[in-house]
Specification:
The protein is α+β, with helices and mostly antiparallel strands. 27% of the residues lie in helices and 42% in strands. It has four helices and seven strands, in the order βααβαβββββα. Strands 1-7-6-5-4-3-2 form a seven-stranded antiparallel β-sheet, covered by helices on one side. Strand 4 and strand 5 form a beta hairpin. It is globular, with a radius of gyration of 16 Å. The termini are far apart.
């Protein structure tokens, strides 16, 4: 079980990832993926495996965030991480991820060994006359020393997840059309 980062050495960083949704894809289509962790989780290019956890242990952070209720899906997720460029120092990290469906999106929380915590709020917004956009607000908390690496992986992974989500939904539309 991950522990909360020490307040003396941790820092909080925020980032937002936004992806326009093509007009062929409806809000309901996007929500169908966001509300299904088994469809959403493997969209991350870092994920190598995942499994549903029946009852995950509670932490102070998950209690404070309201992520210990009955409407929460909890998964053990394993990701491949390259600690150095070009795959010179590859590794794997396994962490607990919790998912809560929201009317307009999804809220998730990840506690990663090594004192990293991430909160993710996915939601669908409108973009003028151009249509809808998928937005994700990310809150990262980790050691100030690991923040550049954590932020790099988070932006890269979340951008890729959103791109793959749109690609999957377009492929579904073409297959049904």
């Amino acid at each position: 079980m991950a522990t909360a980062p020490s307040r003396s050495s941790s820092t909080i960083s925020h980032l937002t990832v936004t992806t326009p949704i093509p007009s062929a894809i409806s809000i309901e289509d996007v929500l169908s993926v966001l509300h299904s962790p088994p469809r959403l989780i493997p969209l991350s290019p870092l994920v190598t495996s995942y499994k549903l956890i029946e009852r995950a242990p509670s932490t102070a952070s998950t209690q404070q965030a309201g992520l210990d209720s009955d409407g929460v899906s909890t998964y053990s997720v394993t990701e491949r991480i390259d600690y150095l460029p070009f795959g010179l120092w590859p590794g794997h990290v396994t962490f607990t991820a919790r998912f809560v469906n929201l009317e307009d999106g999804l809220r998730s929380y990840a506690a990663v060994p090594g004192s990293f915590e991430g909160e993710f709020r996915w939601w669908i917004g409108e973009q003028d006359a151009a249509g809808i956009v998928l937005k994700e607000d990310v809150r990262l908390e980790c050691s100030i020393f690991t923040l550049p690496l954590v932020r790099y992986f988070a932006r890269k992974a979340q951008t890729s997840i959103q791109r793959r989500l749109v690609e999957e939904l377009l492929k579904d539309k073409i297959g049904k059309g």
